[in-house]
Amino acid sequence: MRAQFVLSEIGVGLRRNLTMTFAVIVSVALSLALFGGALLMREQVSVMKDFWYDKVNVTIYLCNKNDAAAGGTCNKGAVTAQQKKEIETDLKKLDNLVEKVHHETADEAYKHYKEQYGDTAIASIITPDQMQESYRVKLKDPEKYKVVATAFAGRPGVHSVQDQRQTLENLFQMMRGMNVAALCVMALMLVIALMLIVNTVRVSAFSRRRETGIMRLVGASSFYIQMPFIMEAAVAGLLGGVVACVMLLVGRYFMIDAGLNLAESMPLVNFIGWDAVVTVLPLVVVIGLLMPSLAAAIALRKYLKV
């Protein structure tokens, strides 16, 4: 009988405040969708870092004859055969760090440059002798870049040592900035949702103050009086959480699998799979259920003291 009464009161409360309940559902859905999207964005950045960092190389550029004018380690002109042999020997000594080494000649570097920038004006005046030989070093652990840089940077015959991760870091930094922006918007939407929940509960409690007064007179406990209001907020929050889950699923499908179809238009990007999205959904639903319930319970404490 008590459960039936609580359920009937939930239905009455939702119908009486239909407009505000709808606003709560929408605001909770948007805030939780942004929350889930921020989690997925963070996971996407992590996946991309693991994917690309595993593929990038440390490149040891060697001096050519045109670098002598620049001075520094190349002040004696192009790298000598002896210097190249010493570099190769030292690379072999780092076999515990180095997975693979590829020597790219100046002709190969020129060919690759023409393939990438053949349509530009500067490509027409570049000659093979202006290109630098290099050693492309693939590390077992990309985080050990500084070991290679310390061992080879500044030595005779070496023009520079570059870690290709630096090229990608700006992209990852931008994605992290987008993630922070999404979290800020999510926090704002969350505050709005909590304010709507509190106001909805107070309006609902005020409209039923006569019923709750009678319940107090007959000895009903505070928990029993609170329960219908808390359940109303929980139902609205749960619906908002479900809508947020649908938005995340549709967003992932539309952006990656269909619609924008980023998976095909950007084949070099390793996008997160459906498993990552499904993992986030239970957390979104749980937060959607608990957040309004706690907000309602806190809002009702003052009302029950009147």
Please provide a written account of the structure.
This protein has 306 residues and is an alpha+beta fold. Helix content is 68%, strand content 8%. It contains 10 helices and 4 strands. The chain has helices at 2-16, 18-53, 81-93, 106-117, 145-152, 165-207, 209-217, 222-257, 262-265, 274-304; strands at 58-62, 98-104, 134-139, 158-163. A 4-stranded antiparallel beta sheet has the order 2-3-1-4. Helix 1 (2-16) packs across helix 8 (222-257), helix 2 packs antiparallel against helix 6 (165-207) and helix 8 runs antiparallel to helix 10. The radius of gyration is 31 Å and the shape is elongated.
Care to give the gist of this entry?
Helix content is 68%, strand content 8%. The chain has helices at 2-16, 18-53, 81-93, 106-117, 145-152, 165-207, 209-217, 222-257, 262-265, 274-304; strands at 58-62, 98-104, 134-139, 158-163.
Strand fraction band?
5-15%
Q: Going across the biggest sheet, name each strand in turn.
A: 2-3-1-4
What is the element string, with H for helices and E for strands?
A: HHEHEHEHEHHHHH
Average predicted local confidence, pLDDT? 77
Q: In percent, how helical is the residue content?
A: 55-70%
Biggest sheet architecture? 4 strands, antiparallel
Q: What are the main properties of this structure?
A:
single chain, 306 residues, alpha+beta, four-stranded antiparallel β-sheet, 10 helices
Summarize the topology.
Blueprint: H1 2-16, H2 18-53, E1 58-62, H3 81-93, E2 98-104, H4 106-117, E3 134-139, H5 145-152, E4 158-163, H6 165-207, H7 209-217, H8 222-257, H9 262-265, H10 274-304
Helix pairs in contact: 1-8, 2-6, 2-8, 2-10, 6-8, 6-10, 8-10
